[in-house]
Amino acid sequence: MKPRKRSIRLLLLLALILGAFSWNTDNLHAQTWPMPGATWEYCITGWNGMPAGHLILGLKGDTIINNRAYRIIGTISESGWNGNRSTSALMTIYTRFSNDSVYRFVNNREYLYFNFNSSNGNVFSTFRSAGHYYNWNDSACTSILPLKTIGTDMLSLNGMQLRRSILRDTLFKTIYNVPDEDEVEYTLVERIGILNGLPLINSREPAGFGYGCSLPSDYASYTLGSYSDDEFFAVQFLNCEGVGIKDISNVYRVVKAYPNPATDYIVFEVQNSLPSGTITISDLTGRPVTSFPLNGEKTLWQTTGVKPGVYLYRLQTKEGSASGKLLIAPL
After folding, report:
1. In a domain, 23, yes or no
2. pLDDT in tens, 273-288
3. In which domain, by residue range, is 307 found?
4. 283-300 burial by CB neighbour count: b if 16+ within 10 A, else e?
5. Is 243 part of any domain?
6. CA-CA distances (angstroms) from residue 281 to 178, 258, 266, 324?
7. How many CA atoms lie within 13 Å of 112's alpha carbon, on the beta-carbon side?
8. Where is the Secretion system C-terminal sorting domain (predicted)?
9. Are residues 79 and 44 in the same domain?
10. What is the pTM of this model?
11. Are residues 217 and 110 in the same domain?
């Protein structure tokens, strides 16, 4: 064999070997979602920031819809819930992964759910879900959720480098006409999913705001406590505190708030002999406004400067908690 031909054959053989190695490496680290055995534990924060329990979602199987294979993500268990829940409200999501994108089948059609490789500044439209009821089927206002990627970086977890993207809801303030609200943003991490809430569920969508929206809101928020899958990957972000908090059945037997409606002040008066506690005031989106100790028989809250509207209050003591509503009227 001539040296020139031998060199060419050796180069071709080397190229084939390197190509095969590269193909195997690419497939070894291939993206997919959800991973086999994926389980998510979400910590539930109830009214006025009080812990309410946890919700565990997991991969429950596969199904065929319109000749396409979808993974089924659903409720595994739920505990410590303080809201009005029923077994008919258990959550189910049907997802399909393809080319670094996750698609969701809902309302008899397929939507893009999220994309793991969206570049900074890119906007993609996905499906907006409202509240935590009715299998997350539809928003009372619109199903279109344009998300803008406003930041990307790499997150190191369990020895793996995972891409993290910050996605901003670009339509929220327009739909609900709430210009003073903070931006709604989701933190998306490859392999895991959304960290700072249920997948594209915005519990801050306020009931009764804008264009006749009436959302089944419980004013709760969800944060990912832990994630694990069958490929020996597990990460603990935080412990879900307060699972099974006791709720005092009748707030008016515990604390009385007056005048209600109020203009410039509200008095909180203890009705029974209770240990010292804390009153927390929040708006209807669950955002805290103020908090203060309730140590004596009566405590005065000056409402001067507080925007008129409906507010929620919660008394928390070591014996339990109680909540009620307040109306701040214009002066």
Report:
1. no
2. 665 678 888 776 566 7
3. 251-328
4. bbbbeebebeebeeeebe
5. no
6. 20, 14, 12, 10
7. 15
8. 258-328
9. yes
10. 0.62
11. yes
